[in-house]
Amino acid sequence: MAAAPVSPDSYLSRLASVACTLDAPLLASVPVAVAVKGYIHNVNFAEASVYLPERNADKTLEATVGYAVQEAGHIAKMNLLLEEGEKLLASLYSYRSCSRAIPQVQSNEQANRLEMYNQTFDVLQPEVNKMRKFMAFRDAATAGVTDVFANMVPEIRDKEFFPSGPFLSTCARMLDMFVSMDAMKNIKGSMNNDFSMYRRAVQSSQRELSEDETIMQHKLYSFLANQDQYSSELKASLAKLPPQAEEIIVDMIDLCADSIEMDVYLAPKTRHTYYRAMAFGLFLLDRDTPEHDITRRKKFKLERFGKLFKACPVVPLFADQYVFLSTIYGKAPHLANTKWEETEEPAKTNLARGYSLLTYPEMRQEYTEYMALLKRTLNLNRPTANGPLSVQQNATIYAVVLQGVKHLVTLTTRVIEQSAWKYANPVNPQVVPNIPADSLSYELAVRFNYSAEEKRVLIEYTAMIKNLTSMMLNLDRAALVAINQHIFHETQTFIKETIAELALHGTKKKRVAGLIMKHLHDVLFDGPPLDDEILGGKKKDLKAAMADTTEAARLNPMTPTQMNFLRAVLNLTLNDRAKGMKGGLMREKDFKDSQVHDARIFVDGMSMYLSMMDIEGTVRELSNLSDLWLKEFYLELSKKVQFPISMSLPWILTEHILESNDPEMMQYLFYPFEMYNDSASRALYQLRSKFLYDELAAEVSLCFDQLIFKISQKIFHHYKKAAACMVLAPDLKSEGSIAQMDLALNAYDAILKQRNYQLLGRSLNIPELIAQMMNTYLRKSIDIAISRYEASDLTYIMDLDTLLRTVQTTHQLLSERMTLDPFESMLSEVDESISLSATNGRIISHTVAELLIDVAPNFCYNNVTARFLRGPVVFTPEVSRHSFPKAPFIYLYGSKPLSVAFTAQNGLYKNFLGVQHFGALKRWVGRNGIPAIIAELAKHVDSKIKDTIAAYIGVIAKGTPQTMKLPLFEYGTAGTFEYFSAHLRPLILYQALKSEVLQAFREVGNAVLVVKMFEDALAMDDTFLEVQTSGFVPRPADVKATNYHKLKDFDHIFGSGGYATPFSTWVEQNERSFAPAPPIPLLGGFLNHLRGTLDSVADEWQAEGHLENPRAFFRVWSALQFTFCVPSVGEGRLVRELFGEGISWAGCTFIYLLNQHDVYTAFDFNNHVLSVQRADRKASHLSFGFGQYGGSSLGHGDKNALAAATAAAAAAAAAASASTTSPSDGTSPVTTLSPLSATIAITAAGLRPDIAQFLESAAFYQNVNEEVFAMLQGMEAVA
């Protein structure tokens, strides 16, 4: 279809020549992806004058379009007032009193009083200027609204026009501004205080004021002193207008009611504006005169509004300020006693339930379903290589995004309204217990006004709002393009089809409405105008012509001015109140009902287009929860400078999450802090208050520090318990309090994945911040473990082991989720093993100290159980240790049940030192630490040999016979015993024998045994490591350690060369895998050092092993050993119970190192007595060394082994009181006797009990000596 020529005077030419002041072009030819921020809201609707028809157009068309343009100008004027009012409202809300901070003049005689008054004047002058602006805005806003209404009255009265929806909506916003300004000014008593101080300063400083300034001060004083200045001035001004002005208010009230009843609004702020505008409109309509009694109006149904007010009596006003609607409409003369509020308690309870979020459990399911729908829609509707999205795909994306916007509106509205209800209905401290009587009003409204369940639901709502907001703000470019293209397509399709059909229909009927529709089409259609030939033809010709019109794929839709113009003209033409739509008996309507219905559906959907064009700004406005933090209203009410963070709702919700111990709630931890982000944005960009932002930033800094501290503590506590459960023995995990622990290792993963959390414009790495606290907690745990070890004996090494293994496991679990310092570095740092001032760490130092001052002098070694047991008698001063430090469970095992369980587990190892203890020592002092311990033991042994034993060797040698031969066997057992006892009587009676001599030998022997146990622990570890690594770490075969190599020659015997595994191969594999690793020669080196020490004192001792040398060590040791086997030496206890087997290990080691083993074996006194006993006919049948004749062969204190031996002996005695077996070598039979029979037997053999006890001890030590010599010889053979 050919385009019609454009006349130079046509509206199209004028439209092209006008410089558009909007931020976006009216008809853009350049594709844009998204609407520019601010381009929707900064709209000057007066530019709609470019859409006026041509000069020679129809008068009705000109009047209709002219009215629409005039109305757009009124909207623009009110928008300017609203913009200014929003700024002043923000300034008024954030107003703080200055007078409280200004020092007062104390008396008229004060010397600097004039200077103080002048400075007060200078400080308060800017604040007074703000007050003047508030008063000036009252006058300007009143005059502006009155002027708009006055201009609209002739149009309504003479031309029968009526206001459009956008105009009425703007009127509602304007009237609501009056309500907000009044309410805000009424509560700001600080302005009165500042102005009073300002007037006092002016009067006292004797300033000369002009007449205008004086009048202004009087007006300002009256303005501040009287309440409701805005509403009363507006009502008085509107009362002077003709009655048609009231019709505008009535239409506005009806529009607000319709919008609320049908949910035709977008922002929560709009909903609350409509409520307040309705209440204020009723106040404006009702006057004192009877003819203006609103209750008598027949066409005005008050019950409709009363029902709405009763359902929502409280609405938010501004930030934390709320308003009862009854306080607005209750000022009307005839509505003061109207009962539109619930008075009965059940009704009030139901009303509170309606405000509560707890009554909407379905919102979570709807949210989940919508999020799935949105993701699915965006994934299925993406541009492909074949081309852009189709029209249907664009419509689908638009519908789904619009659904999300409405869902966001619902969520935010319910949160904001519940907050307003809480503010308006604080908790009663006299009804609810545990609330301090001096609680502030803000505490009663916020801190104590939310139950635990309400806090939980509010947190979930906040999370849903912010998650949905994030999804909306992160829509990709394709989705934004689809939204804009859909709006453009819908508007152009409506204009091209529906408007064209209406124009065709009106033209055929010869109605002016047809010209109006044609004008709309030609102005707004992105294509050629309608041809007169087409309008004079048939409908099918129109469709054919429109089908030929190709629609450009524009990415930006119509401008706000175009949309407003389209809605206004359609409203004037298609509304039931329009002239052409009234109809009658003689005249039909301009358009059919079906045609009007389609147009109205489009207009209703069009109300969302502006918001959808600026989807980013819309979503940010809808998701703003700053009202939940802002508190200026309550600060003014409480006359406080600031509230503590315990009253701040975001922190209250955060603390609830932290204290709930609910893993599901942990994922919402950072959502309450989004309220701070919203509040900061509002403080800077809307309230424009720097001090408010500074206060918020300070609170956020404090709260965030507290949050990181508390969440770090909870995370550490959680993983500490999990690690402790892993370390705890399995049989102890079945305890009820431990088995019920639900320690999900991923409970805090949602928090630890926040590596780019945005807070007040800063990007925070949450895992990194938590990791710093974790490093501190881990070091503290290590320090407490070591400190408790330093305050305990060596048996606490098992507790140290479990504590450090728990810390190590905790570190391992945490390291999987964040970056921590290496555990080895932490341990070395806390242990001070890398300090320049200390050669050994704290663990090694305390271990050495305990070995030297407690284990070596006070413990008794038992060879049967391979354990050190604490001796029954202490011969050294009591060991002084630090007081045992107390510590919270978080630094131990995480909880009291786990601590109790570990105490029970480690309690099994408290009464002895054994393989387990030395294994734990090896684990934590390390291979490099063990040589340091052995070196200290070697120094201690050197000291004992040189300073103590060397001195007593000479004394003992002098106190024993210089020549003493072994008695003949004819002496008998008793005679031989008495022979040696008589010759060694001085030594037996020697007072310092036990406390000095035997004690010194015990310390040396225990030191040797400690080294041996360290070597055994290392050998066991090396063997285990060898088996583990044999498959991939080759080890050269040690032919000295195994005889397997001799078996390789069996291949030719067995003929196994053709087997799957030849015999030689099998031998090599077994040798490589199972041959024990050679032990680390710790004991060998220690003994070599000991040999050197003995060689250095040998000359002093004169201990050469000659038979005639009375000072030979084997003779000295033989005398000592006979002496401590004599029962009287122990004074009621066996010497082996007092000193253990350490003394034998010391003596035998000395003998072996001095090469006196053979001569000692031949000439030992005890061996000779035992040999005589075995040759004695009366006593040869007795077997000693098994605890039957006056003593246990087991060490004192090893109750388990002692009980086992006693039980075995009792069982044997019960089977046969005296069973005799004949040895194969022909010696006398060995008799096993019951205790009673043993007593009878030794009496029959002519032996006294003391001799029997001696023989028992001598046989016991003979066995020990043989084992020691065998071990030393075997070690030398291996070496």
UniProtKB/TrEMBL annotation:
InterPro entries: CYRIA/CYRIB_Rac1-bd (IPR009828), Cytoplasmic_FMR1-int (IPR008081). It comes from Geranomyces variabilis. GO terms for cellular component: cytoplasm. Residues 73-214 form the CYRIA/CYRIB Rac1 binding domain. This is Cytoplasmic FMR1-interacting protein 2. GO terms for molecular function: small GTPase binding. It comes from the Eukaryota. One of its GO terms (biological process) is regulation of actin filament polymerization.
